[in-house]
Records
---
Amino acid sequence: MGGDNTPLSNTLASVLDNLSTTSSGTLFGIVAATGIVAATGFALTFGQAEVKGKAATELLKGTSLREDEVKEHWEEYDKYFQQNAGEGVDEKQKAPKLVDTFYNLVTDIYEWGWGQSFHFSPAIPGKSHKDATRAHETMIADLLELKPGQKVLDVGCGVGGPMRAVASYSQAHVTGITINDYQVKRALHHNEKAGLKDLCTVVQGNFLHMPFEKESFDAAYSCEATCHAPKLTDVYKEIFGMLKPGGLYVSYEWVKTPKYDKLNPEHVRIVDAICYGDALPEMRTYLEIVDAAKEVGFEVVEERDLALPPAGPWWKRLKMGRLAYYRNHVIVSILSFLGLAPAGTTEVHEMLYKTAISLVEGGETGVFTPMHLLLCRKPETQETPAVAASA
């Protein structure tokens, strides 16, 4: 270390860049130092890391929120998503706006500590988390029976992790929609970097009112995304309208399982905490998603909980990340203290950690699953509504 005259703040920034881009396979899986000196020493000792994500010093910068707005929007989110003892939030119709706010607050932190696929996957013995995630995503293509050149809709695409897996695996053309403009920018960046910009495109919009021609997609999917909808039938109806007759739709849904007991205060607490920390206006049951799909006209081909044995625990990665969280929290706290991260960043990071604990509890008790499979088909022919027939 002797003879290095680099200013400490610049050295810290370089260290955080290195640490933020090293994947450790846990939600908060960045091997971080416990202070400025330790962080500096780590980087100078171990050198450069493979660049995989956004720099830690850039957390929550570049979103549609100005830096001085982060804390204000965090407080708005915090107030709105307080849960009502298992009944969700008040004024559910306001959820899309606050979901947009949520992803302005968490997208960087998700990418920084989790990766580009904002979802869970069952653990597979002998396979890395990366491989398990890829298998979970390519299964979507298999379920949809995709063929090269088909047009596929990704409903709630985030920064496009599943999109790129589905497109590269099937050679189908995937169009993603996300309500968050910042995620569009990140997804386009990743698509180009992966050499998939000709197969993947992303638009900004509300999946309750999609800006596409009716019956313009061969297939559609949503990967842990429609749980954000204020009313599930509204988003399912919109997806139904986008599909060509005979088109398949597959969704991985967040639901309460048969083990959930609404009279058990512990079950209610766990589910409420998950909804609060993940911007869900409410948590549906596994039966409600099936009923919603049938109500809008879908034929339900298959539905089952992909988290059940022989699948390995999807929450394993979260549980392993508890210690790493504290190391990351030091980084976030230092960045906030030095003014390198906007005010409110620490609160958002703490919320995500507490939510991770609740997700683990949901998995271990079996009252919650983030991967209830719903496979549906739009009928080849549809009955003409009586009102339309008499018009």
---
Amino acid sequence: MASEHSFDHTNASEDLDKAFSGMLEGGGRSAKAKQKKKNKAGGKSKNADSEAAAQEKKKGAKKKKKDPKQTTRKLWVAILSLLIVVIGVGSIIGAGLTVVHTQLDKVTKVQVNRKALGINSRVAKELKNYRNIALLGIDARDMSDDSQTRSDAMIIASINKETNEVKLVSLYRDTYVSLGDNYGLDKMTHAYYYGGATQTLQTINRNLDLNCEEVVVVNWKAVADAVDLLGGLEINIRESEISEMNKYIKDTQKNIGGSKKKIRRAGKQTLNGVQAVTYARIRKDSAEGDHRRNERMKIVLSAAFEKAKNLDLDQLNKIANEVLPSIKTNITTNQMMEILLALNSYKITDSVSWPYDWTDWTYNGIWYGPPVTLKSNVTQLHEEFFNQKNYEPTDTVKEISDRISSLTGRW
């Protein structure tokens, strides 16, 4: 019997839209982003053994499935929280463009091989009016060496060049996709481990029929620093979340430093950096389980925007001095300036998680979340996000989709 888990993000989306609306002088419609998990009949394909060698080859990047509480941080809020700083600095244009330009120069540049991004020529033509930027949160402790680290958070910020509408697509890190000819089928999160930003962009483009050429990378330690510099965030903690948070506050503090202060009560309260990171990263609570974490991430993001938009220039400069060096991107300073100058015309109109339909699958003791199917999920994304009616995925997507279904037995 198929089981289905759905999650309604309406409340968090409304809060997020309001935060962006006040800051960008626009208004985004709230959107329900429902994620469905389908368990379809079927077992492992006979082709499973043929993939075994490739799976063994990737042992260095994989670990056996842990309890969700012990998995690495799922922080898509990481990148967007830090971008608050850029947005905030840029919004105070009256202070002088030179000041803003100087701050943006502090962002570290990351090298991307544009010839290896896997962008299909047809896709490049069809999406020419969309600027799709990949926002990555990685589990590196030290941004000076992010080799052999995974991307715990992956978001596509899609900007419509004609309307300046912005749509956000959060990619599930455990989604089972193709990482290219050298690595075969694997979790999407492992793309960064194998080849950094270039391999991640290639994986996104080949599996989702996208044209991502730009990337922003940040580690989760910098998020805690940003929250502390913002003076903490006002968050309403549920009774069912306290135990889970307190279990992992010490673990978070051990890795990033800061306070070990635990949560003593439910209700609205000011969270410090360590607490906010822990709140966003926990994968379940006793009442709603794993699915509420996406809403928690939006809650943190909304609170951060509300706090950042009320800071003065001196406060924003202080945050920028501390945080911007922890961000890596291949977007040039001048390109970032162009985005900032057009900021007031941008408006967030949608935010969803992808894939829409997925299932559970365990192979060699490792848990995966294969899309059901990749082809149908890509079709839905392009029809809903890019208004491409009757979208037909590329041959690359079709071939990958067939491989995933054949191996997992999920069609």
---
Amino acid sequence: MAVQPTPSWLRSYAVIFTSLLAGASVVHNILKPDLTIPDLEKLENSSAEEDGSSQQVEMTKPATT
């Protein structure tokens, strides 16, 4: 007697994935989060103006091994 794969796993996966996407859609439609990436130069300039300092922040690359 051959064992047949049960479609219940596939159905469960589909239901869980669909509910995950539906939940995210509902939350994003209600809360409407701002998902834009801020411009670093504008943030640095505005924070330097607020502090009264004109310090430059130097960006360095992380060390690779």
